[in-house]
């Protein structure tokens, strides 16, 4: 009810129970109620990325158990190879999280560590070898790359990964398929955000969505994911004038720019959906997003926490992409679930 006295909701104990077994239904306008942003006056409902990602991982684990049981010898597990160049501590933490998630669902994860002084030619040769490895379904080159020479060749390095093994979804072929509305392997964070949006139950068709940030890995493919789901999308960036005015009009706001607290709570439209992709560590050590969470939750109908919102979904979508690639490589078809 627009104009109703608002109340701040207590933290969610779980997640809106939706069936992610077949996501095709989320791309049918008939699957939703009336269009437009509903506003029941409740504020600050948390979109629990941890709970939603756990649900997706459970689906994937059951799917792989079923595949294994159907084979006399159990078959081989899906294989993911993570290539780490150098010894970056933060990268190792992220990789450990991915490996743990793989183990939980039944994906074989291998870490291939290369030295800091690895040349572009050596890294490219490594990737080409993995392209030909029939036990490797997915290849992930951990970013950032440590040296200037590797960074200068980053596009060539990512494009050398075979498109059907590009579980990050960054290869031009996979981005192009998203542009033409025929997605294959999809960029993990934007696809994870779509699951978070679906969990609210709000009809995305015609929803006025604003994406803050135009990066190749999040902002641009996020725009394409929203368009695929029928949303009306505006993307803003560092050259956009009057950011506040644009944000105030957003029924759904997705922020991914790496600027702690850039979006102020008072800018948020009453009852809006707010998804904060940013994760920034302050000097105090505290992790915060790109949105001022405490003030924003007083106005938002739904909002993601940082941490615990988008991050777990990025990992869940990496698992989904790996299984999708595995199914295509083993001629079992491509799953539409999760």
TrEMBL record:
Domain Tetrahydrofolate dehydrogenase/cyclohydrolase NAD(P)-binding: 187-328
Keyword Nucleotide-binding listed: no
Pfam families, A to Z: THF_DHG_CYH (PF00763), THF_DHG_CYH_C (PF02882)
PROSITE patterns: THF_DHG_CYH_2
Superkingdom of the organism of origin: Eukaryota
Keywords for this protein: Hydrolase, Multifunctional enzyme, NADP, One-carbon metabolism, Oxidoreductase
Pathway assigned in UniProt: One-carbon metabolism; tetrahydrofolate interconversion
Domain Tetrahydrofolate dehydrogenase/cyclohydrolase catalytic: 47-168
Hydrolase recorded as keyword: yes
Xref: HAMAP family: THF_DHG_CYH (MF_01576)
NCBIfam families, alphabetized: PRK10792.1
Protein name: Methenyltetrahydrofolate cyclohydrolase
